[in-house]
Design goal:
Chain lengths: 346, 346
DNA sequence: TGGACCGATTGTAACGTTACACAGCTAAGG
DNA sequence: CCTTAGCTGTGTAACGTTACAATCGGTCCA
């Protein structure tokens, strides 16, 4: 069931059928109707998308590479905000949106190679990800969110180091035994509690920059980073953060400040503190990251940023014409609330 | 830059190049390396996805049609749960995931016709959506979540009518002046407050069935449905529900029970009651729908269902072999908490 | 009445890949 | 030593569409 079939049935040429579907205004009203009726009669399903994309050279689809198990992307509210921002642009430009999951396995590059897309947005990934090469090779417009930077690819990333230093300072001020609650340090997502973590050893650049910022904040307050426990979680949800915080804070551990890499994690810490009867902020200061809806309600000191706008920015940078690889450093700000000790009036 | 080019460079035939990328195990180790090196040297980006899909007849991609502005899909936690369920299956089967937004406009059918996908899952849509025809026409395996039912397409939907009757009964028991907080009744998303709404007039089948169930619950308790105000919201978030509830409950309105179509909406009602100093459940009974994480914390009586499992089910039914159109009615249950008056012990 | 012009339609030639069937060659088995 | 089987590599022929340039009647104006 192809265009020539429909053409025969309608008594026109194949090209007329093609135009009827692809640029209807180019075909006379009467002819158009005749063609559509013939198509209807034969049950012609419309132009084959593969053939069309082969011939036209474009797919009208934007690809989003998620450096995460696809499932996590929908569990993480920040990731969905980011996707929401991207989708705004897709709707504007009449584009489809294809999600390309990347798991760290060997087929990743193949998936990226084979995805039928015209441009690519990469959600935070590791530094030497072969997927980056695969994208570069295809020569599609592409942008990385969060990092790593790569020549030939755009980059949209806030200054995580500076922001972490700001929020870390808010968390650690007046503390003697601070701790950090971190995203996974590697794709294996191994949970651990470690001291003396070298920030530079983290392969995810967002995580690396934040650790660096926290370390600088500690140093700036005269605290020794080498003694700061970094609690690394496998999953980044509230329940797991709560469990980890119970272990971390239990039994006179002395920990009196926790800087967490997301609001969700920080809320888990707050709940643990509540269960342990630890007073916030006098006995324990807590900070989050993102300033999602729950942060305000909980009085959480945190970093405000708009993942939604960042998603929009990423999408525009690859979809709109004149998309030379962009470098953008979106805004962020420290939001001080009641989960930290009042510090110097900055 | 095509396969013949690479073939020439590597001194082999085009077919060998094709096999090297598509079925590497069919090619001798040494040859494979030679081909890959040649490809590298020429900067060959890998097989053209369009050409491949044209020839192979499949795209290794699952399409999800969202009967919503794409942006809403990511704002609605239940929708993201549903997508998370679908994505589990995609990862399992090594499939990509393409989102196809549908806005009610005339290009909708075209978008569906042209999407490069092997199967389709439709997220709740209206009854006589031309998109359904477009999907049927393409002859792809397809399933509708929530409805409407359509021969040739699968259907995964809980018994919304029965569930609404159960939760409506919990909400309205002991009430004299109940009200309903509803999703939009049409694609235009017009907000309104109406009495005597004919449930059958709602074009979204989920909404229709729930209204029917609420009406039956009212009737079962001797309450006159024609007098029950149905508050229709444009957007389905907590803030808007709160605003609507403030209007609905203010100034001695007498409204003493509200059945809301989602937890988010119900939470808005609870907040409004709190601000107005109305006691729950003695002066006002409130019910939600979905039993999301916030419902338990708020003591909300609600309908529990797993959108995630439903997403998984939908995806499996179209992706796994032997996918005759499925009819499935996933489980749900009424969760009684403290936002409703104690009723008969069921 | 001739020419210019315009809209509608058409034929041809790719677009880049892979299924299929077959040919060579080597190794194992009788 | 001949047969069989298994592994690699190859030529041919689509897959279904659309860009491009050309054609064909008309209509309009000078």
């Amino acid at each position: 069931m192809t265009m020539p079939d429909v053409a025969r049935e309608a008594g026109v040429s194949a090209m007329t059928v093609s135009y009827t579907f692809g640029r209807p205004e180019r075909v006379a009203e009467a002819t158009r109707r005749r063609v559509l009726e013939a198509a209807e009669r034969l049950g012609y399903p419309g132009p084959h998308p593969g053939a069309r994309s082969l011939r036209r050279g474009r797919t009208a689809t934007l690809g989003v590479v998620l450096g995460e198990h696809l499932t996590y992307a929908f569990d993480d509210p920040q990731a969905t905000q980011f996707l929401a921002g991207i989708s705004t642009v897709c709707v504007e430009h009449e584009l489809g949106l294809t999600l390309i999951p990347v798991t760290g396995g060997p087929q990743d590059a193949a998936r990226v190679r084979e995805a039928a897309v015209d441009a690519v947005v990469l959600w935070t990934t590791v530094d030497h990800d072969p997927v980056l090469d695969a994208v570069l090779r295809r020569g599609l417009p592409a942008v990385v969110h969060g990092g790593p930077a790569r020549s030939g690819l755009g980059l949209v990333a806030i200054d995580d180091r500076a922001a972490a230093m700001a929020v870390g300072t808010a968390a650690f001020t007046g503390a003697r035994a601070p701790a950090v609650l971190s995203f996974p340090l590697d794709r294996a997502r191994r949970p651990a509690v470690r001291q003396g973590v070298d920030p530079d050893s983290a392969p995810f650049s967002v995580t690396r920059h934040r650790l660096r910022g926290y370390a600088e904040a500690a140093a700036g307050l005269g605290l020794e980073w080498g003694r700061v426990p970094v609690v690394v979680l496998a999953r980044t949800d509230r329940a797991e953060a709560e469990a980890a915080a119970l272990r971390l804070l239990g039994e006179g551990s002395g920990v009196d400040a926790v800087a967490a890499m997301s609001d969700e994690l920080a809320l888990g810490v707050l709940r643990a503190a509540d269960r342990l009867g630890i007073a916030v902020p006098s006995e324990l200061a807590v900070t989050g990251w993102d300033d999602g809806p729950a942060a305000a309600a909980a009085g959480l000191t945190t970093i405000a940023q708009s993942l939604r706008e960042q998603g929009e920015l990423c999408a525009r940078s690859v979809v709109e014409p004149g998309s030379a690889p962009t470098r953008a450093s979106p805004p962020w700000r420290l939001v001080r609330r009641t989960s930290t000790r009042p510090g110097h009036p900055a």
